[in-house]
């Protein structure tokens, strides 16, 4: 047999490695006016003309609120060992203040019970961008009080579910909540105020710290608390250019250091504070805040899709900003008008994002160095493709299979290199409402017909089910 015909060495994972999938409340639940739920900022945003593709909303989404039992059965059929979902704050605490609505909490109690019955580990995210509208009306995340309200909400959910749910995440991608919501305006609440975005980032950090303390006060000590960050993997266009290296440092501070600095190390990067001094004096940081934010965490969630390629800006180049975060005349990067973004080379997904598994390995190893010994989970990773059923009703998505094989192989390489990666959550379990893109972009491993709500596992779901069962990556050509 020639070397070229020799089978590749199988990519196997440690026996305890956790195989999961993830979703978020507003993207899948629907039932936006049922059982006491009141509007979140995403209800308001999606119902504002011109904000979402086709005027799409999450009013029905994929009707998970009514179909959760069937969805959990599907998860079991796909051999999922864990399911990461988010709680809708305005379903549990409609005004963002005061007592809980038990009917809202009961939905999550039923969901958790169903998961446990099927042997699937529930992983709860408390905040995946759906702030109660009444809190936004009071100022939203740029207001300090919102962090206090979040701690109250965290305690409510912790008391209700903490006896059965051991894995908790306070926040998902606070960068998106702060900078897409308050700087570029492409996410809810659609504001374009750079100084407010930086305040929002600090108050989200504060919410994480206060929420962590609140959860620990009401839950068993065995429970693990973390959060999910989408730190950019920032690369300079010319690694030999000091100006491009400075641009990369600025974006790295704004995407990562602004969160992991205080959370992991108890301080914001001095380079961040200096670079943004023209926008804010950071007087929102009060005595004791950094100690509150710097709570011990039990793990760290990392979300990764594509790397970010930057250079120093050419003053004569007035082209669109190619940072992959939606079209807006307003930048999500405060005080970074001197930075230019470039399309990374290689194959692209339907989002226009380059497929580059080396970026995931790079991200993991960065946090392996940043927080030695801290367990890591890949809490989101996946790709959007233009999936369609064939004549037999089957959905073949070989591009996504190849994407998952490449990125899971990168996770395995990171484990071999010493990183303590304990699990992987595919984004997403189901096709769903993709924020401002409406229903145009499909990230799901399971195809959803949005008219009939019929679920059809794609080739990638069947491939991932085999991987989860065997703890080994199947041949991507074999599905």
Automatic annotation (TrEMBL):
Root EC class: hydrolase
Region (Disordered): 311-340
EC number: 3.2.1.21
UniProt key word Hydrolase: yes
Catalytic reaction(s) noted: Hydrolysis of terminal, non-reducing beta-D-glucosyl residues with release of beta-D-glucose
SUPFAM superfamilies for the chain: (Trans)glycosidases
Membrane-crossing residue ranges in chain numbering: none
Source organism superkingdom: Bacteria
Biased composition (Basic and acidic residues): 315-328
Keyword Protein biosynthesis: no
InterPro entries noted in UniProt: GH (IPR017853), GH_1_N_CS (IPR033132), Glyco_hydro_1 (IPR001360), Glyco_hydro_1_AS (IPR018120), Glyco_hydro_1_beta-glucosidase (IPR017736)
Pfam family, one: Glyco_hydro_1
Keyword set, alphabetical order: Carbohydrate metabolism, Cellulose degradation, Glycosidase, Hydrolase, Polysaccharide degradation
Active-site residues annotated for this sequence: 380
Family: Belongs to the glycosyl hydrolase 1 family.
Stated name of the protein: Beta-glucosidase
Lineage of the organism: Bacteria, Bacillati, Actinomycetota, Actinomycetes, Kitasatosporales
